């Protein structure tokens, strides 16, 4: 092909004007001008010389094929052939370019045919993707750090309310525990029904406290990466409402919920909870100046290919002169010490990272509405495994084990069953192709928690899912998330929940395969 060999210099090449050369050299993007017939480098700028390590004289002795090899060279040749005949087209290639040192560099190559002095040339601009990737990673890191600062500020403002939320169930636990203690001290003959009646409120209060602590733990966690999973937005919203419910009553605010079941989205629930918490906190702050009826309305509805979450308050409108500023970093309308100014800008960045959007409308007499748009995920009944991956189900109860195995098999997975944690470890040793494990938590001799720890120590790449008929998902997450559990299921198993777990498995296996390749 043309660019495989050194083309001979032609004496009849039309000269390029000095003014064009001067202009070309001011372009910041590494760029070269190539003769469309010989593929020789006719002109280069300082940026490309710096990127590739050649001097302008050395570049003038080369032709475009000197920088590429193998399949990349074939692709460049094909592109050059097209551009030598075309006019004005812009084409893009992702490939590796060879520097003077011999090292390869990943680049985006943009090429377009132009006509200079009635002769066709090809302009190529070279973008170093390692720098672009570094800038993107730096941007994402900044968003994460700002999000964590904002998150901690929100939690700080919630502290008094959370203390109140914990005090109520704590008083219940203390009161009924004292009753039981007094009955024991006085030697009362207590029936099992009476004892259950006294213990019941204690268990409910303890569960309430566990949920509050779990929500706070999840909110304060400084996750390094966005962890996408399929969740029902109603569940995400209810988590935050449960955390700030006392603030509604304390501030005399009516909460109105408008939604029906089935609003599934793919998101990082921890980050979305933070956004909702921030918007609700701002709404509560805005309503502090309203003397008449105070309302916050939360609505969920499907709109075409999106799920729409709207949070409206009937407080004063955001002044027009600051509406353009409130999504920018460090802007706040709160008094010094009351806010970081990071919340809404961070929230906007998080929603964009999710492929969604954050917007607002604010009008005097109408209040303010913040809208969160999420792209709809694949329908639950359309989720089907294409990987035929091998999985392991561990449960000492044969019936439960077979139910889980059957449900997973319907999605196309190959399943091995184990009746104990010890059997599971033996199976994992002899079946290295296993890619995910579902394990019950309550099992004799070695329970699921211990099995998960063993798996994490010896099989770090395995996806692990915890199942329990005794613990709620919130409690399981609180106790097991530190061991790297990827998801949680409670018995009896809900088909939609299993389907969502399957979608998570598919996403993770696909990501793992991309890393491996």
Features:
3 domains; 5-stranded antiparallel β-sheet; alpha/beta; Rossmann fold; 5-stranded mixed β-sheet; 517 residues; Heat Shock Protein 90; disordered N terminus; Beta-Lactamase; 46% helix; 17 strands
How would you describe the shape?
flat
Strand order of the largest sheet: 2-1-5-4-3
**Count of strand segments:** 17
Q: What is the helix content?
A: 40-55%
Average pLDDT taken over every residue: 78
Q: What distance lies between the first and last C-alpha atoms, to the nearest angstrom? A: 30 Å
In words, what does this structure look like?
The protein is α/β, with parallel strands linked by helices. The chain has three domains: 2-133, PAS domain (Beta-Lactamase, 2-Layer Sandwich), CATH 3.30.450; 226-377, 2-Layer Sandwich (Heat Shock Protein 90), CATH 3.30.565.10; 382-516, Response regulator (Rossmann fold), CATH 3.40.50.2300. Helices cover 46% and strands 22% of the residues. It has helices spanning 18-26, 46-52, 56-60, 70-85, 129-185, 192-220, 233-250, 269-287, 320-323, 343-353, 398-410, 421-430, 448-458, 473-480, 495-516, and strands at 31-35, 41-44, 90-98, 104-116, 119-128, 229-232, 253-258, 264-267, 294-303, 306-313, 357-363, 367-375, 390-394, 414-418, 434-440, 463-468, 487-490. A five-stranded antiparallel β-sheet has the order 2-1-5-4-3, with helices on both faces. α6 (192-220) packs across α14 (473-480) and α7 packs parallel to α8. It is flat and about 110 Å long.
